[in-house]
Each structure stands twice: as C-alpha cells, then as structure tokens.
Amino acid sequence: MQRRTFLTSSLIAAAAAAAPFLPARAAGSLPYDDKGDPFAFVVDLSNAVLERIRGSDSLKSGNIDALRELVDGIIMPATDFTMMTRMTVGPKWRTATKEQRAALEEGFETLLMRVYAGGLSAVQDQKCELRPTRVKTVRPEMVIRTLLTSGSANPIALDYRIYQAKDKCWKIVDVNIEGIWMVENYRSQFASVLSQDGVDGLIKLFNEKGAELAETMKKKEASK
Predict the structure, then answer these.
(1) 182 within 8 A of 3, measured Cβ to Cβ
(2) Which among 55, 51, 15, 53 has a CA at the least distance from the CA of 32?
(3) Domain chopping of the chain, boundaries
(4) What is this structure's pTM?
(5) What are 159-192's pLDDT values in tens digits?
(6) Domain 38-127+182-222: homologous superfamily in CATH
(7) 91-120, pLDDT tens digit by residue?
(8) I need a surface site. Which of 26, 87, 142, 211 has the fewest CB within 10 A?
(9) Residues of the signal sequence (predicted)?
C-alpha cells in the first residue's frame, strides 16, 4: 500500500486522467514553473500535489471526480500521457489505428485512476526534495532524482523521467519508485495480452479491469 500511495501522490495518477481537451490556463496559474529550472519544476509539482491531497477529504477518500479535478488542473499540463501510453504499449502502438490509440489512452486512464485513487488516504506529512547531487546539468532529456521524506517513515526514492517539449515546457513521461519504472512495469504486465490478443485484447482488458475496480469502489463507498 505504501508503494502504491507514494506512486499516486508522486504523479502516476497524473497519467491517469489525460483528457483530450483541457481549458486554456492563465499564465502563472500553475504552482510550478514548467519552463524554468527542471529540478524545481519536479519538486514544486510534487509538493503541490501532496499539499492538495492533504487538504482534501474528497481526495483522501478516493473520490474520482476530485482526483480528476486535481489531475486536470495541476498534473495533466506537466505530463505527456500519449507518450506514456505509447511506451507502455510498445511496438504494437505503431500499427494501432487512430481509434485504437484513443481507446488505449482512455482505457489506460481509467485503469490507473481506479487503481491509485484508493491509496491517497495515507498521504500525511510527506515532502518531496532533491537527492543530494553535485551535478545539476540541464539537458533536453533528464532523470530528476528525488526523495519523498516523512517524519514517520523512511525516505522513498523517486526518479522522474522528463523531457523538454517543442514549446519549451517540461513534461514527465515516467516515474521510478525504488527501482521500479512505471512504464516498464506495466509494459511487462500487458505484453502477454498484446502478444495473444493484440491491441483490441488490451483495450478489452482495460475496460474490464476498470469496470471491476469501479464496482469495488462503489461497494466500498456504500459500506461507509
């Protein structure tokens, strides 16, 4: 549960709510500078997410609408979910139709939202900070290494893979929690389905798992 919780609060849920169209945002409205220092960008974004979760009973209870609002408002602008999905699907993405790609993104979104929403209640005093390093060279593609610290638990190592898009904004495309990269982890889980049943088989799996998790959450909510 601890791994899942920190994974969520550290932007994996960001990938989960990739809406195809988002309202325009006012300049400076985000709690981070996505065109400035990439190290500060990652730390400020992570801490903004943690702070929002701490201050919201709806988020802590796993409310999907509250999580979607958080993602759309703060996290989604900082991620490249299409690239995340493409890397997770692997070579099959190249032969997928436009409609299949859209369905893959939507299905992956639903799965991640349902999986990670349940872990937010454990967010307490966690804070993101950079791991000590002498080298802070800025490159177009980088891995930013951080620690999620807490007064009541051991630090959690988190690495963020980011790149600078054409508009000069930094985008997160993968997260590593204590040696486990999200994209690689999910790609290995989906490989057999893609091999046996192809893209349509993975879309079907996403839809089935999403429905199962939604039903579980509905029963959990009804039992409160």
Answers:
(1) no
(2) 51
(3) 38-127+182-222
(4) 0.82
(5) 999 999 999 999 999 999 888 999 999 999 999 9
(6) phospholipid-binding protein (1.10.10.640)
(7) 999 999 999 999 999 898 888 877 777 777
(8) 26
(9) 1-26
